[in-house]
Design brief:
This protein has about 290 residues and is mostly helical. It has a domain of about 140 residues. It has a two-stranded antiparallel sheet with strand order 1-2. β1 and β2 form a beta hairpin. α6 runs antiparallel to α7. The chain starts with 19 loop residues before the first helix and ends with a strand. The C terminus is likely disordered. Keywords: Membrane, Signal, Transmembrane, Transmembrane helix. It is a multi-pass membrane protein. It is found in: Membrane.
Length: about 290
Protein backbone atom coordinates (compact mmCIF):
# COMPACT_ATOMS: atom_id res chain seq x y z
CA UNK A 1 0.00 0.00 0.00
CA UNK A 2 1.42 3.34 -1.11
CA UNK A 3 0.57 6.50 0.80
CA UNK A 4 1.51 9.85 -0.74
CA UNK A 5 1.55 13.06 1.32
CA UNK A 6 2.03 16.37 -0.45
CA UNK A 7 3.00 19.52 1.41
CA UNK A 8 4.80 22.79 0.86
CA UNK A 9 8.07 23.62 2.63
CA UNK A 10 6.13 25.85 5.03
CA UNK A 11 3.34 23.37 5.78
CA UNK A 12 0.19 21.88 4.26
CA UNK A 13 -1.32 25.21 3.29
CA UNK A 14 -0.66 26.93 -0.02
CA UNK A 15 1.78 29.81 -0.32
CA UNK A 16 -1.17 32.25 -0.33
CA UNK A 17 -2.61 30.79 2.91
CA UNK A 18 0.48 30.17 5.06
CA UNK A 19 0.65 33.80 6.37
CA UNK A 20 -3.05 33.80 7.34
CA UNK A 21 -2.56 32.22 10.77
CA UNK A 22 -0.14 34.98 11.84
CA UNK A 23 -2.27 37.64 10.19
CA UNK A 24 -5.44 36.62 12.05
CA UNK A 25 -3.77 36.39 15.46
CA UNK A 26 -2.17 39.83 15.00
CA UNK A 27 -5.48 41.39 13.94
CA UNK A 28 -7.19 39.67 16.87
CA UNK A 29 -4.79 41.47 19.20
CA UNK A 30 -5.47 44.80 17.50
CA UNK A 31 -9.27 44.37 17.73
CA UNK A 32 -8.96 43.32 21.39
CA UNK A 33 -6.87 46.41 22.16
CA UNK A 34 -9.41 48.63 20.40
CA UNK A 35 -12.24 46.95 22.34
CA UNK A 36 -10.47 47.59 25.66
CA UNK A 37 -10.02 51.27 24.78
CA UNK A 38 -13.72 51.45 23.89
CA UNK A 39 -14.76 49.86 27.22
CA UNK A 40 -12.45 52.27 29.09
CA UNK A 41 -14.19 55.16 27.31
CA UNK A 42 -17.63 53.80 28.18
CA UNK A 43 -16.74 53.61 31.86
CA UNK A 44 -16.21 57.38 31.99
CA UNK A 45 -19.63 58.45 30.68
CA UNK A 46 -23.32 57.69 30.93
CA UNK A 47 -23.84 55.54 27.84
CA UNK A 48 -26.60 53.85 25.84
CA UNK A 49 -27.14 50.10 25.54
CA UNK A 50 -26.02 50.26 21.91
CA UNK A 51 -22.55 51.32 23.10
CA UNK A 52 -22.16 48.05 25.03
CA UNK A 53 -23.44 46.15 22.00
CA UNK A 54 -20.66 47.78 19.97
CA UNK A 55 -18.16 46.61 22.62
CA UNK A 56 -19.56 43.07 22.43
CA UNK A 57 -19.12 43.14 18.65
CA UNK A 58 -15.46 44.15 18.93
CA UNK A 59 -14.70 41.41 21.48
CA UNK A 60 -16.57 38.81 19.41
CA UNK A 61 -14.64 39.86 16.32
CA UNK A 62 -11.35 39.45 18.21
CA UNK A 63 -12.36 36.02 19.55
CA UNK A 64 -13.45 34.87 16.09
CA UNK A 65 -10.06 35.86 14.65
CA UNK A 66 -8.26 33.93 17.41
CA UNK A 67 -10.13 30.72 16.60
CA UNK A 68 -9.67 31.36 12.88
CA UNK A 69 -5.93 31.63 13.42
CA UNK A 70 -5.86 28.42 15.49
CA UNK A 71 -7.86 26.64 12.79
CA UNK A 72 -5.38 27.64 10.08
CA UNK A 73 -2.45 26.70 12.34
CA UNK A 74 -3.64 23.10 12.71
CA UNK A 75 -4.46 22.83 9.01
CA UNK A 76 -0.93 23.99 8.20
CA UNK A 77 0.83 21.73 10.71
CA UNK A 78 -1.37 18.60 10.68
CA UNK A 79 -3.08 18.82 7.30
CA UNK A 80 -6.59 18.89 8.77
CA UNK A 81 -8.70 20.86 11.21
CA UNK A 82 -9.22 19.96 14.86
CA UNK A 83 -12.98 19.54 15.22
CA UNK A 84 -13.30 21.35 18.56
CA UNK A 85 -11.40 24.44 17.44
CA UNK A 86 -13.25 24.47 14.11
CA UNK A 87 -16.64 24.36 15.87
CA UNK A 88 -15.61 27.21 18.17
CA UNK A 89 -14.56 29.27 15.17
CA UNK A 90 -17.86 28.62 13.35
CA UNK A 91 -19.87 29.59 16.45
CA UNK A 92 -17.96 32.85 17.03
CA UNK A 93 -18.04 33.63 13.31
CA UNK A 94 -21.82 33.21 13.28
CA UNK A 95 -22.20 35.43 16.37
CA UNK A 96 -19.87 38.04 14.91
CA UNK A 97 -21.82 38.20 11.64
CA UNK A 98 -25.17 38.50 13.39
CA UNK A 99 -23.88 41.13 15.84
CA UNK A 100 -22.31 43.16 13.03
CA UNK A 101 -25.48 43.54 10.98
CA UNK A 102 -27.74 43.96 14.03
CA UNK A 103 -25.46 46.69 15.42
CA UNK A 104 -25.19 48.50 12.09
CA UNK A 105 -28.94 48.34 11.56
CA UNK A 106 -29.69 49.57 15.10
CA UNK A 107 -27.29 52.49 14.70
CA UNK A 108 -28.82 53.22 11.32
CA UNK A 109 -32.34 53.39 12.77
CA UNK A 110 -31.12 55.79 15.44
CA UNK A 111 -32.19 53.38 18.19
CA UNK A 112 -31.13 54.68 21.63
CA UNK A 113 -29.44 57.71 20.05
CA UNK A 114 -32.59 59.49 18.85
CA UNK A 115 -35.40 57.10 19.86
CA UNK A 116 -36.09 54.04 21.97
CA UNK A 117 -38.78 52.32 19.87
CA UNK A 118 -38.37 50.73 16.45
CA UNK A 119 -41.06 51.29 13.83
CA UNK A 120 -42.84 48.38 12.13
CA UNK A 121 -40.85 48.73 8.91
CA UNK A 122 -37.59 48.79 10.89
CA UNK A 123 -38.63 45.62 12.72
CA UNK A 124 -39.27 43.99 9.34
CA UNK A 125 -35.70 44.80 8.32
CA UNK A 126 -34.44 42.81 11.32
CA UNK A 127 -36.83 39.96 10.49
CA UNK A 128 -35.19 39.83 7.05
CA UNK A 129 -31.55 40.47 7.95
CA UNK A 130 -31.20 38.03 10.87
CA UNK A 131 -32.42 34.89 9.01
CA UNK A 132 -30.38 35.88 5.97
CA UNK A 133 -27.30 36.25 8.15
CA UNK A 134 -27.88 32.76 9.54
CA UNK A 135 -28.15 31.44 5.97
CA UNK A 136 -24.99 33.33 4.96
CA UNK A 137 -23.02 31.86 7.86
CA UNK A 138 -24.29 28.35 7.09
CA UNK A 139 -23.14 28.85 3.50
CA UNK A 140 -19.75 30.04 4.74
CA UNK A 141 -19.35 27.00 7.02
CA UNK A 142 -20.23 24.63 4.17
CA UNK A 143 -17.72 26.39 1.90
CA UNK A 144 -15.01 26.09 4.56
CA UNK A 145 -15.61 22.36 4.98
CA UNK A 146 -16.11 21.45 1.30
CA UNK A 147 -13.51 20.72 -1.35
CA UNK A 148 -13.07 23.64 -3.74
CA UNK A 149 -13.54 21.55 -6.88
CA UNK A 150 -16.93 20.09 -5.89
CA UNK A 151 -20.25 21.32 -7.29
CA UNK A 152 -21.57 22.06 -3.79
CA UNK A 153 -18.70 24.47 -3.18
CA UNK A 154 -19.58 26.74 -6.09
CA UNK A 155 -23.32 26.54 -5.37
CA UNK A 156 -22.93 27.65 -1.75
CA UNK A 157 -20.35 30.25 -2.75
CA UNK A 158 -22.91 31.86 -5.06
CA UNK A 159 -25.56 31.66 -2.32
CA UNK A 160 -23.19 33.32 0.16
CA UNK A 161 -22.35 36.14 -2.26
CA UNK A 162 -26.02 36.82 -3.06
CA UNK A 163 -27.26 36.68 0.54
CA UNK A 164 -24.39 38.86 1.74
CA UNK A 165 -25.23 41.55 -0.81
CA UNK A 166 -28.91 41.44 0.19
CA UNK A 167 -27.97 41.92 3.85
CA UNK A 168 -25.65 44.79 2.99
CA UNK A 169 -28.40 46.48 0.98
CA UNK A 170 -31.01 45.91 3.69
CA UNK A 171 -29.06 47.71 6.42
CA UNK A 172 -28.88 50.84 4.27
CA UNK A 173 -32.65 51.37 4.40
CA UNK A 174 -32.81 52.24 8.14
CA UNK A 175 -30.09 54.85 7.63
CA UNK A 176 -32.03 56.44 4.75
CA UNK A 177 -35.22 56.49 6.83
CA UNK A 178 -33.36 58.04 9.75
CA UNK A 179 -31.80 60.74 7.54
CA UNK A 180 -35.27 61.82 6.39
CA UNK A 181 -36.50 62.46 9.96
CA UNK A 182 -33.72 64.27 11.82
CA UNK A 183 -32.62 67.77 12.63
CA UNK A 184 -29.59 69.35 10.97
CA UNK A 185 -26.90 68.17 13.42
CA UNK A 186 -28.09 64.55 13.51
CA UNK A 187 -28.74 64.68 9.77
CA UNK A 188 -25.07 65.50 9.14
CA UNK A 189 -23.91 62.63 11.36
CA UNK A 190 -26.13 59.99 9.79
CA UNK A 191 -25.25 61.16 6.29
CA UNK A 192 -21.60 60.53 7.17
CA UNK A 193 -22.56 57.14 8.61
CA UNK A 194 -24.42 56.26 5.39
CA UNK A 195 -21.36 57.14 3.32
CA UNK A 196 -19.15 55.09 5.65
CA UNK A 197 -21.34 52.00 5.26
CA UNK A 198 -21.47 52.34 1.47
CA UNK A 199 -17.67 52.75 1.26
CA UNK A 200 -17.09 49.78 3.59
CA UNK A 201 -19.43 47.51 1.62
CA UNK A 202 -18.06 48.68 -1.72
CA UNK A 203 -14.45 48.12 -0.68
CA UNK A 204 -14.81 44.75 1.07
CA UNK A 205 -17.29 43.23 -1.42
CA UNK A 206 -16.01 44.63 -4.71
CA UNK A 207 -12.65 46.46 -4.64
CA UNK A 208 -10.86 43.93 -2.41
CA UNK A 209 -12.11 41.01 -4.54
CA UNK A 210 -10.91 42.71 -7.73
CA UNK A 211 -7.51 43.27 -6.11
CA UNK A 212 -7.38 39.59 -5.13
CA UNK A 213 -7.99 38.54 -8.72
CA UNK A 214 -5.22 40.78 -10.05
CA UNK A 215 -2.64 39.89 -7.36
CA UNK A 216 0.04 37.22 -7.86
CA UNK A 217 -0.94 33.93 -6.22
CA UNK A 218 1.56 34.15 -3.35
CA UNK A 219 0.27 37.61 -2.42
CA UNK A 220 -3.43 36.76 -2.32
CA UNK A 221 -3.35 36.71 1.48
CA UNK A 222 -3.24 40.51 1.16
CA UNK A 223 -6.95 40.34 0.30
CA UNK A 224 -7.71 39.14 3.84
CA UNK A 225 -5.35 41.78 5.22
CA UNK A 226 -7.18 44.55 3.36
CA UNK A 227 -10.57 43.27 4.51
CA UNK A 228 -9.50 43.10 8.16
CA UNK A 229 -7.84 46.52 8.10
CA UNK A 230 -10.86 48.12 6.42
CA UNK A 231 -13.11 46.49 9.04
CA UNK A 232 -10.92 47.89 11.81
CA UNK A 233 -11.01 51.38 10.28
CA UNK A 234 -14.79 51.17 9.90
CA UNK A 235 -15.19 50.10 13.55
CA UNK A 236 -12.93 52.90 14.77
CA UNK A 237 -14.70 55.57 12.70
CA UNK A 238 -18.13 54.36 13.82
CA UNK A 239 -17.01 54.39 17.44
CA UNK A 240 -15.57 57.88 17.04
CA UNK A 241 -18.72 59.26 15.40
CA UNK A 242 -21.05 57.76 18.02
CA UNK A 243 -18.70 58.00 21.00
CA UNK A 244 -20.29 58.81 24.37
CA UNK A 245 -19.60 62.37 25.52
CA UNK A 246 -21.35 64.74 27.87
CA UNK A 247 -21.42 67.53 25.27
CA UNK A 248 -21.97 65.52 22.09
CA UNK A 249 -24.92 67.27 20.35
CA UNK A 250 -25.53 64.27 18.10
CA UNK A 251 -26.50 61.96 20.96
CA UNK A 252 -28.79 64.24 22.93
CA UNK A 253 -32.34 62.90 23.09
CA UNK A 254 -35.32 65.28 23.15
CA UNK A 255 -36.25 65.94 26.79
CA UNK A 256 -39.97 66.70 26.39
CA UNK A 257 -42.79 66.94 23.87
CA UNK A 258 -41.99 70.59 23.16
CA UNK A 259 -38.47 69.65 22.03
CA UNK A 260 -39.89 66.95 19.79
CA UNK A 261 -42.39 69.42 18.34
CA UNK A 262 -39.70 71.97 17.55
CA UNK A 263 -37.31 69.39 16.07
CA UNK A 264 -38.03 70.28 12.47
CA UNK A 265 -36.66 68.36 9.54
CA UNK A 266 -34.33 70.43 7.37
CA UNK A 267 -34.48 69.72 3.66
CA UNK A 268 -32.72 71.10 0.65
CA UNK A 269 -35.75 71.13 -1.63
CA UNK A 270 -37.11 74.46 -0.34
CA UNK A 271 -40.62 73.00 -0.26
CA UNK A 272 -41.23 74.42 3.24
CA UNK A 273 -39.82 77.86 2.52
CA UNK A 274 -42.00 80.63 3.84
CA UNK A 275 -44.00 78.41 6.20
CA UNK A 276 -44.50 79.95 9.62
CA UNK A 277 -45.11 78.19 12.91
CA UNK A 278 -47.55 79.55 15.51
CA UNK A 279 -46.94 78.72 19.15
CA UNK A 280 -48.72 79.92 22.28
CA UNK A 281 -46.78 81.57 25.04
CA UNK A 282 -47.37 81.11 28.75
CA UNK A 283 -49.68 84.20 28.98
CA UNK A 284 -52.02 82.89 26.26
CA UNK A 285 -50.88 85.18 23.45
CA UNK A 286 -49.76 83.83 20.16
CA UNK A 287 -46.37 84.56 18.75
CA UNK A 288 -45.22 83.71 15.28
CA UNK A 289 -41.89 82.34 14.22
CA UNK A 290 -40.99 82.61 10.55
CA UNK A 291 -39.29 79.66 8.91
CA UNK A 292 -35.61 80.14 8.34
CA UNK A 293 -35.43 77.70 5.46
Amino acid sequence: MLRLTERNPGGYLSAAEIPLSRLYICMAGVFFFAAMIWVYTLMKYSVFKIHWLMAALAFTKSTSLVFHSINYHFINTKGHTIEGWAVMYYITHLLKGALLFITLALIGTGWAFVKYILSDKEKKIFMIVIPLQVLANVAYIIIESTEEGSSEYYLWKEILFLVDLICCGAILFPVVWSVSAMNLEKLKLFRHYYVMIVCYIYFTRIIAILLKVTMPFQWQWCYEFLVEVSTLIFFVLTGYKFRPASNNPYLQLPQDEEDVEMDEVVTESGALEGISKVKKTSNGRERQKESTL
